[in-house]
What does this fold into?
Amino acid sequence: MADRTAPAGPVRLPSFQPGMKIGLFGGSFDPPHDGHREVSLVAMRALGLDQVWWLVSPRNPLKPNAPSQDQARRIAAARKLANHPRIKVTGVEAALGTTYTAETLRRLSERLEDVDLVWMMGADNLATFHHWRDWRGIAATVPIAVFNRPGLALKALSSPAAKALARGRIPHAMAAKLPEMPPPAWVFLPSPHIPLSSTLLRERRRTS
It folds into this structure.
């Protein structure tokens, strides 16, 4: 079966095949780090994903002071670090003209109707997920895989969003079934324990 890309138009997506299972991993990636890559590798193994797409955002509406310029630089750095044929780095949000994850997922779902999508995020994001615009809409659009971060499991799993979506949580032993499950469905994966974050690396860079 031949690879295909997005429908003709200004938005170009990585090559994919119908029936694939694809993880969507959004963030500023400023800078990208080994934790991003390790989470992606774990996701491919645990969830049975064919690809992971890094969605390098133009800006983060929840972090107004975070760097928002030079997306091309961040994409180039992410591609260099990813260095894996099944990890695809893209700036599709800029092409779509979307700022919020809910809208990005709605637009991508329309273009990827014959693909099983999974939204990937860290435990720190689950802890604050209830502050995201239309977070319930996100949970209703695609299954979600949550990856542990040191010291954040309890906070994440007791968060308002985790409690509201409790009926959709599946055991981590069933993670491989997640991509094919109808949302809302989510899994908390206890590994990897990634101590790195882009925020921490930026702070180190500023103080070094």
Observations:
- The two ends are 51 Å apart (CA to CA).
- The chain is about 35% helix and 15% strand.
- The first strand starts at residue 21 and ends at 27.
